[in-house]
Amino acid sequence: MLGMGVVGSGVARALSQKSDSLANQIGANVCLKSVLVRDKTKQRSFEIGQNLFTDNFDEILERTDIDIVVEVMGGEHPALEFILAALESGKHVVTANKEVMAKHAPDIFAAARRKDVRVLFEASVAGGTPVVSPLMRDLVANEVVSIKAIINGTTNYILTRMSSEQIDYKTVLKDAQNLGYAEPDPTNDVEGIDAAYKLAILSTLGFRAQVKDSDVFCEGITSLSAKDFQYADELGYAIKLLAISSRINGEVQARVHPALIEKDQMLAKVDGVLNAIEIETDLTGRVLFHGPGAGSMPTSSAIVADIINIGRNVAGNAAYLDPVRLSESIKVQSISDLQTKYYFRLEAKDEPGVLAQIGSALALNKISISSFIQKGFDPEQGTAELVIMTHRATERSVQSALKDIKDLDVVARIGNMIRVSE
């Protein structure tokens, strides 16, 4: 095993406590042979024999009694190099590394294929909620139409609290950090980067074509305010950080951003640190995977399941299933081509003709208003807060309109723009 932090300790604990059960399921004993760590003397949440620790990766590569390498280090480097080296040495790999799989999946699959070994990565997307395996196996007869997911527990916790308690982002983030739900540096979570990694993996599997994390449009939650949740609720919506990929006219559009979602939709009801992935296909229609997306035990569940899967092949001397084949080449569509409805919140002077000027800026960009609400009034500034919902429009037109509106003398500030999930 490479790494023994929170997740690695959970895996070691599960292997130890479930040894008899695992042996029965696999038909052979599963033994933890070696653990690569930086500091062999460090105290860990689950203690194992000190003789198992090594700080030399080559020792693991050279051992002929090691069949599977489990990578739980995290980060891109040196995890990528270790994974490729393990495969090249003829060892199977289980990884929880979303960044490596999002950026380098084709190279990893190709290396596994060359050496006739397997690489499994269930834990890289939704922790203990199985979705990678169903996409690779159970839904393989389907053409995936779309993937719509809540796949970051930290941001979902923050947004749930902001919605239910009408409190601001910074306050909830601090609470999340104190509770251990958010990292001291929460950038990867709150800016949508973590979700983009995971969406790239799901999209690659779902559309059987490489979709990199750099192909995913990414926008975080830091601009959301308590007011947005109040107004969304009045309009019949929840706000979630959604990861969405769709096949549109033979192209894939992949995006992560806050979205208004109607309250009666299943994803709107997914709260707290839970994850949910809704996959729509041509044969099954919509299926929903819902459960814990992070944490030592849920993630260990996925990793140990992958170990069992490979272990059965090893113990039975059975032929290995071919690694994932990316059979299609597919173009990634720009976010500018997105067509959906939009929510605007802005502050403008409280005087006659303001709405006409804003409406004119929208109309010039071929955007029509579906509803308009005037909210609070600031007597000191002489401004009112306006909430506008549009009919369907293109992202390109909306961005152009926002620039025009910002230049209007009657508009003091554009508070927010949120896309609507249809």
Tell me what you see in this structure.
The chain is 38% helix and 25% strand. The strands form four sheets. Strands 6, 7, 8, 9, 10, 11, 12, 14, 15, 16 and 18 form an eleven-stranded mixed sheet that branches. The chain has a three-stranded parallel sheet with strand order 3-4-5, with helices on both faces. A two-stranded parallel sheet has the order 1-2. The mean pLDDT is 95. Helix 4 (79-88) packs parallel to helix 5 and helix 14 runs antiparallel to helix 15 (395-406). By secondary structure, the chain is α/β, with parallel strands linked by helices.
Outline the fold blueprint.
Layout: H1 6-17, H2 19-26, E1 35-36, E2 53-54, H3 57-62, E3 68-71, H4 79-88, E4 92-95, H5 98-115, E5 119-120, H6 123-126, H7 132-138, E6 144-150, H8 153-165, H9 169-178, H10 187-190, H11 193-207, E7 217-218, H12 226-235, E8 237-248, E9 251-262, E10 274-281, E11 285-292, H13 296-316, E12 331-332, E13 339-340, E14 342-349, H14 354-364, E15 369-378, E16 383-390, E17 393-394, H15 395-406, E18 411-421
Parallel strand pairs: 1-2, 3-4, 4-5, 7-9, 9-12, 9-18
Antiparallel strand pairs: 6-8, 6-10, 8-9, 10-11, 13-17, 14-16, 14-18, 15-16
Helix pairs in contact: 1-13, 4-5, 5-11, 8-9, 14-15
